[in-house]
UniProtKB/TrEMBL annotation:
It comes from the Bacteria. The chain crosses the membrane at residues 163-184. Residues 88-102 have a biased composition (Basic and acidic residues). Residues 14-69 form the HTH cro/C1-type domain. This is Helix-turn-helix domain-containing protein. InterPro entries: Cro/C1-type_HTH, Lambda_DNA-bd_dom_sf, Lysozyme-like_dom_sf, Peptidoglycan-bd-like, PGBD-like_sf, PGBDSf. The keyword Transmembrane applies.
Length: 391
């Protein structure tokens, strides 16, 4: 079982769907096109799929309802985000350990170099001066002094080490002071155009109660304010204060429509736009989407509608982030790579008419749905073997 609660909830729903279907792992593997061992790992929670397509295909074979598919997608997004965060934490920990070991190795090398005596320097034996023919005889009138004891090296090294430690400590304290000052400045209201909540500013997102950046996983009144503003602009979104996958998709869509870098987090530019922008996020109804898809795909109207429904639940503003940092956009989930080939932009891809026409262009290349292999199988279509690069 997985130690990650997000992954375990995702796996638990998969196990429930599998149990309800009454199918064995082997039967599910044949119907969904996945390996039996892969299904075992997904259901045990020891592995999370890198793309949602395989999850959707498996759930469809198990007879999942539309509501269950939405829940499954949400749980997959949370599990995928948790896996990414865990991998990043491990990488940062390894990097920190390497950085910690580097000064120690350098110090050991330095200490080793210091311990080597220089030619003719202190600590090297000097031959006794003797008169000719009187080797070992003392010089008259001059008392022989004992050899001086070597200076204690560890004390010098200790002083240098303490000095280095003091410098590093001072640097760390200075960095922490600067970070604390920056955080305080970001949270403290500003009286001169810094987006702070000054006199008469009724924008809660800029108050000291909200962090400078609001992101996925948070659950508070600041998230509720973001959702309320999106809903006021026509977005189909629940106002529950939970920054989950649906809020992530709506925030990203708003950023694209408002001309902001679509990073999916609510920083100062997005906060300002939420209050000031006149962007509208109202979209076509599902019935209008079905009708237009059938008009554009008269040869295969039902299959085309099924593909769009599988890809986006007929939501024109549906955005799906991939684990490699790319995204799929709109009704037919046009990938970043395909978008570049078609000469389009994310903003165009969120326009339902443009997205449907783009899907038509892709379909017309070979008159099949090879660009959407997972949903093509779910819709009952049989795509040709991979004749073009995967999305």
């Amino acid at each position: 079982m997985s130690a990650c609660p997000e992954t375990e909830r995702f796996a638990a729903l998969l196990r429930s769907l599998k149990s309800r279907s009454g199918l064995s792992y082997e039967a599910l593997a044949r119907k969904s096109g996945l390996a039996g061992s892969t299904l075992h790992r997904y259901c045990r929670g020891t592995s999370v799929p890198q793309d949602y397509g395989s999850v959707h295909r498996l759930a469809t074979v198990c007879g999942a309802t539309p509501e269950e598919l939405r829940t499954l997608h949400r749980l997959w997004a949370l599990a995928d985000a948790a896996r990414t965060a865990a991998a990043r934490a491990e990488e940062e920990a390894a990097t920190a350990e390497e950085r910690q070991e580097a000064p120690q190795e350098a110090e050991e090398a330095e200490n080793g170099a210091e311990e080597k005596p220089e030619p003719g320097g202190e600590g090297q034996a000097v031959p006794d001066m003797a008169e000719p023919g009187g080797e070992g005889r003392a010089v008259p009138g001059i008392a022989r002094e004992p050899d001086p004891e070597p200076a204690p090296k560890p004390a010098g090294r200790s002083r240098r080490r303490r000095l280095r430690t003091s410098v590093v400590t001072a640097a760390i304290l200075a960095a922490l002071s600067v970070s604390a000052w920056a955080l305080y400045s970001a949270r403290t209201p500003s009286g001169s155009g810094g987006g702070g909540r000054g006199s008469g500013d009724d924008r809660p997102l800029f108050s000291a109660n909200c962090p400078p950046v609001i992101a996925m996983g948070e659950h508070d009144e600041c998230v509720r304010e973001v959702q309320r503003l999106l809903h006021a602009k026509g977005a189909d979104i629940g106002v529950d204060g939970d920054f989950g996958p649906q809020t992530l998709r709506r925030v990203t869509a708003f950023q694209v429509l408002a001309g902001i870098q679509p990073n999916g987090v609510v920083g100062e530019p997005t906060k300002k736009a939420l209050y000031a922008s006149r962007v509208r996020m109202s979209v076509w109804s599902q019935e209008k989407v079905r009708q237009r898809v059938r008009e554009v795909f008269p040869e295969v109207p039902d299959k085309a509608v099924a593909i769009a429904d599988c890809q986006s639940f007929l939501d024109p503003l549906h955005i799906l982030p991939n684990t490699n940092g790319t995204r799929n956009w709109g009704l037919f989930q046009i990938s970043d790579a395909r978008l570049r080939e078609l000469g389009g932009t994310p903003r165009q891809a969120l326009d339902p008419e443009w997205n449907i026409q783009a899907a038509r262009r892709l379909w017309s290349q070979d008159r099949d749905f090879g660009d959407w292999p997972h949903c093509a199988r779910a819709a009952g279509a049989t795509p040709l073997t991979a004749t073009r690069p995967p999305r």
